[in-house]
Write a structure and sequence with these properties.
Length: 350
């Protein structure tokens, strides 16, 4: 089977999981709330609005062209965004018809159902890549560093680690708030596409309007799509950052989360997951953002002209999207385009 056909078969399987009338779609809806900690409403949102079930042929060809052929490919999945295995496994299938996937113990359901629906890859408890094989690994920077140390020489590693999204806002703050809420709610703000900071080019009054409007939009969103389960570390980090920002600006309640206006200029203190956001005011000069480029996997803008051009110049490796579409990037290759995620061959120094 050709690479594009293997990827098409996987996407067709994902459509079954997105379909509430399909037995596998019903099973996904029954099991994913418990395995992910997301509310059933958030699971439904991800399956029907975020999961990439209708990629264009151009994007599908681009995804296949973004990787090189390999004899065998291995995938180590993370748990924070349950739909991410679709793209991760698609990239592996674009390289080889011999693909081995190790699921996260915290969230094994989606990948298992995807394998059941497609039969295009194998699930395994232990990954054993050899020289010449490729390994796509997703996780924290610490986990990936430890993983690389344990790999044999000659394995080609694609390491996709920690990162976050940033929103750049100009113009009407209220309109931007509605779009921002759409990017924050999916997966309860986990994953590198989720915005954690919004930088507004305007006055403090405009920044305050954005913060208050977003707090209201997140409160409304929580009525439709409740916040799911947060672990102890996530809750503790939310409290710590909120308290720190109370002294550095203003904090507004946002349903189960919060929105903070940080009065410290030209700094990025990302909000933790759990539907929280930090708003930072900046003048028209945004050059200071480039110092944080290594951490920014995604950037959302209110306009592809103007701010979009600026974002592409300052953050050339970040996924660029309009606000409201940050969780829905094109299915044209890896989500994370930062140079730190580029493939490299593991070599032991002698």
């Amino acid at each position: 089977m050709a690479p594009e056909d293997r990827v098409r078969a996987l996407v067709a399987a994902a459509r079954r999981l997105a379909d509430p009338g399909d037995p596998l779609g019903r099973e996904a809806r029954a099991l994913l709330p418990e395995s992910t900690g997301l509310s059933p409403e958030n699971v439904e949102l991800a399956l029907t609005e975020v999961l990439e079930t209708q990629p264009s042929e151009a994007d599908l060809r681009a995804l296949c062209a973004s990787v090189e052929a390999a004899p065998r490919v291995h995938v180590l999945l993370a748990a924070n965004v349950f739909s991410a295995p679709l793209r991760a496994i698609a990239l592996a299938l674009a390289q080889s018809d011999d693909v081995f996937v190790r699921v996260s113990r915290r969230e094994p359901v989606f990948a298992r159902l995807l394998q059941q629906a497609s039969g295009t890859f194998q699930l395994t408890e232990t990954l054993a890549p050899r020289a010449g094989d490729h390994l796509w690994a997703y996780g924290t920077d610490v986990t990936l560093t430890e993983l690389e140390r344990a790999l044999p020489d000659g394995v080609v590693l694609h390491a996709h680690g920690s990162g976050f999204g940033v929103a750049l806002v100009a113009g009407d703050p209220s309109a931007a708030a509605l779009a921002l809420a759409r990017d924050i709610v999916p997966f309860d703000q986990r994953g590198c596409l989720s915005p954690r900071v919004a930088v507004i080019t305007g006055t403090r009054d405009e920044a305050r309007v954005l913060a208050r409007a977003l707090a209201l939009e997140l409160e409304r969103a929580a009525e439709r799509i409740p916040l799911g389960r947060l672990d102890d570390d996530e809750r503790a980090e939310g409290v710590r950052v909120r308290e720190a920002l109370t002294y550095a600006g203003e904090v507004f309640a946002a349903g189960p989360g919060w929105v903070a206006l940080d009065d410290t200029s030209a700094r990025l203190l990302p909000a933790p997951a759990g539907r929280n956001l930090v708003v930072v005011r900046s003048g028209s000069e945004l050059e200071w953002l480039s110092a944080h480029a290594a951490s920014m996997a995604a950037v959302g803008v209110t306009s592809l002209d103007g701010l979009g051009v600026t974002a592409s110049r300052l953050l050339p490796e970040a996924r660029l999207s309009l606000l409201g579409q940050m969780q829905r990037p094109r299915f044209d290759g890896p989500v994370d385009r930062r140079s730190r995620a580029l493939a490299h061959q593991v070599t032991r120094s002698v």
